[in-house]
């Protein structure tokens, strides 16, 4: 089922933990991160707002990149201070929702294709076709040491492994043909052996015989999400992704990224509309513009500079502790997430921020375009959408669940009145609602090789 090209898509960026170092301290934040009911409530709210999907970020360690210590992460409730495994969290949300897509982050660097493919196939079946996988290539030594490695895999090899990982996962999803599960008690024929196949994969990274012991997912393949920003990451995303999550400090940089990814998709034999690009937006909504900016300042005041710098150190994979706090971030060769580095460099140069000020801003993560009344927030989102910077947004919450409640209650109706966001879901599956085709058996080959 297709969706209107004039309608934007909305994902929600959620963490199975406190998320923002200032937000968890703000009134309206609920500290129920270890309770299924907390995430189920957010899921219900998002489904009421007709969001396409709920996207859980994840990491595989408590970061210690700043000063070689976990102190700033744990003390201030930063990025990785507490993270539940998102997969069972999704299962709990799937049980109380009917249309909302459910995405979990799973790394290709330290896990194996068979259990990952099996987990997402199971989730897709149990939710009637609403599963999505945010594919990441882990990059921190602290994560590697939790999997028996001294150091993480270097960037080129991480993407080589990820390419093969996706190939194997897709082969496993394809190991059952769509009509292989017969369930004919009279024949008797449970599953047709002629339609279930070994994959016999032998590659540089993996040796997997198959088949999967789960029937082919309702969506063919769960929706694939990726966030690559480096040249290799962008190529990987343009080949494999159905949805791209990204972060930009300005409309101009978002538009450049959008055009680049769509062009890369075409070069890889795909259509521009096959990939939905949803940049991060973290709105702050007030009854007046002045009230919204006051809320933003209050949130920023709750962020200790070291909390934001701890998260930035993790994202850049650079220890920032030895740099002067009252001078700008210097140019650096970044081994970590290049997209975040480009974003903070643009922000630093545009606003003349010191490292201390950058730490507070990065910890708060509120984009200035989306601070104001509900109508003003909708104005900013409509501008980005209309001017070719995105296909919609990944909406973050400054404090949860209240910020999601405010967005659904105030901004979603404004977007609907303008005719740029749905009033009802278009279909049953996540692919239906995103306007994406269901991949046929073997579709992975075209994505990886372009033929």
From TrEMBL:
The record's listing under SUPFAM superfamilies reads: Bacterial luciferase-like
- Residues in domain Luciferase-like? 29-384
Swiss-Prot/TrEMBL keywords? Flavoprotein, FMN, Monooxygenase, Oxidoreductase
Is Oxidoreductase there in the keyword field?
yes
User: From what superkingdom does this record's organism come?
Assistant: Bacteria
User: Do you know which Gene3D superfamilies this protein is assigned to?
Assistant: Luciferase-like domain (3.20.20.30)
**Protein name per UniProt:** LLM class flavin-dependent oxidoreductase
Organism this protein belongs to: Streptomyces hebeiensis
